Amino acid sequence: MLQLVADGIIVGAVIALGAIGVTLTYSILRFANFAHGEYLTWGAYLAWTVLVGFTSIAGPVAPLGPLSFGWPLLAALVVSAFGTALIALALDRILFQRLRRKGSTIALIIGSFGAALVLRNLLQFAYGSLPEYYTREIQIAVRVVPRDILGGLRVTPDQLFVLGLTLVMVIGLHTVLMRTTIGKAMRATSLNPQLSRVAGIDVDAVIRATWIIGAVLAAIAGVFAGLTVQLRPQLGFDLLLPLFAAAILGGIGSVYGAVAGGLIVGLAESLSVPLVGAEYRAATAFVVLIAILLVRPTGLFGERP
Questions:
Q1: What per-residue confidence (pLDDT) applies to 297?
Q2: Distance set, CA 78 to CA 64, 149, 186 (Å)
Q3: In-domain check, residue 305
Q4: Residue 220 CA: distances (Å) to CA of 45, 189, 208
Q5: Any idea which of 1-5, 43-47, 91-95, 167-171 has the lowest mean pLDDT?
Q6: Would you say residue 304 lies in a domain?
Q7: pLDDT category of residue 63 using cuts at 50, 70 and 90
Q8: CA 261 to the chain's CA centroid
Q9: Which of 17, 19, 101, 256 is buried most deeply by CB count within 10 Å?
Q10: Nearest to 45 by CA among 249, 231, 185
C-alpha cells in the first residue's frame, strides 16, 4: 500500500504541474485550452532533441551521482522550457489572439482542439511513432522505509529528483504570484479583466506571462513524464484528461487547487490498480472527481458564487 501511495504522489506531481497551466489559462483567458497537453509532449521531445544533439557532438556524460542522467539533461530542460514557451506565444499570436477579438469562447475551445491536432501530428511526422528514452541506464530503487514498516518503500533517485524539483517549482510559482508585480497583475486580471485594464494593468503582458508560465511548467512536466516512463507522441494526449480532472477537482482557477487535485488524481489512479486493473485507472480518477463535485460543486479550493 505504501508503495502505491508513493507511486501515486510521483504521478500526481507530474499531473499537478500540467494542471497549473490549464487552470491559469482558464482563470485569465476564460477558456479551456485543449492544446495544453501537446505542450507537455513538445517540451519532452525538445529536451530529447537537445540531449541527443549534445551527446552526438560531445559524447556521453557521466550521470550526476545516483541519477540516471547527467547535467546535459538539465540544460536540455532549460532549452525545452524556452522553446515550449515560444510555441505557446506563437500559437497565441497566430490563433488565439485573433479568436479573442471575436469574443467567442466556443471558437477558442474549438480552435484549441484544432491546434492540438496540428501540434500532435507535426510532432509525430517529425519524430515518428516509436517510443524514445532520455537514458538507457537501469536504476536500482532505493529503500527509504525499513522492511518491517509495511514491507518497505522503494523509490528511484530519478523519482526523488522529480518530487524535489516539483516542490521547488510550486514554491517558485507561489512567490511569483504573491510577491511580484506581474503576479499581482495576474491575480487582478483573473478577478476582472476589464476593470484591470481600466486600472492601468497591461493585460496583454499578463496574457503573455500566463502562456509562458503555463508552457514552462508543461515542458517540465513532459520531461518528468518521459524521464519516469518513456517518450511517445501520445504522451500529452494521454495526460490531458487527468490534467483537466485535477484542475476541476481543485477548483478551476485555483493554482493551489490544481496542485492538490493533481496529487489526488495521481493517488486515485495508483491505489485503484490492485482493485480494477491498470487499464481502468483513469476511470477511477473521474469517479473520485464526480464524488467530490457532488459534495462541493466548485471544487476543493474554488470560490462559491
A1: 80
A2: 17, 39, 24
A3: no
A4: 11, 25, 18
A5: 1-5
A6: no
A7: confident
A8: 12
A9: 19
A10: 231
Q: Hey, which residues does 95 pair with through a beta bridge?
A: none
Residue range of the domain that includes 49: 2-295
pLDDT band per the 50, 70, 90 thresholds, residue 275: confident
**pLDDT tops 60 at residue 218:** yes
pLDDT: is 134 or 91 the higher one? 91
List, for residues 127-140, the tens digit of each pLDDT value.
988 888 887 766 66
Residue 165 in any domain: the answer is yes
Q: HEC string of the chain?
A: CHHHHHHHHHHHHHHHHHHHHHHHHHHHHCCCCCCHHHHHHHHHHHHHHHHHHHHHHHCCCCCCCCCCCCHHHHHHHHHHHHHHHHHHHHHHHHHHHHHHHHCCHHHHHHHHHHHHHHHHHHHHHHHCCCCECCCCCCCCCEEEECCCCCCCEEECHHHHHHHHHHHHHHHHHHHHHHHCHHHHHHHHHHHCHHHHHHCCCCHHHHHHHHHHHHHHHHHHHHHHHHHHCCECCCHHHHHHHHHHHHHHHHCCCCHHHHHHHHHHHHHHHHHHHHHHCHHHHHHHHHHHHHHHHHHCCCCCCCCCC
Q: What is the pLDDT of residue 146?
A: 58
Mean pLDDT in residue range 169-175? 91
In the chain, what percentage of residues exceed pLDDT 90? 40
| Structural domains in the chain (count) | 1
Answer for the pair 105, 231: CB distance below 8 angstroms, yes or no. Answer: no
CA angle 264/17/54 to nearest 5° reads 135
Q: Residue 81: which CATH number?
A: 1.10.3470
Of all residues in the chain, the percent with pLDDT exceeding 70 is: 92
Residue at 117 is within a domain: yes
Q: How many residues can be counted in the chain?
A: 305
Residue owning grid cell 504522489: 9
Question: Which grid cell sits at 135?
Answer: 537514458
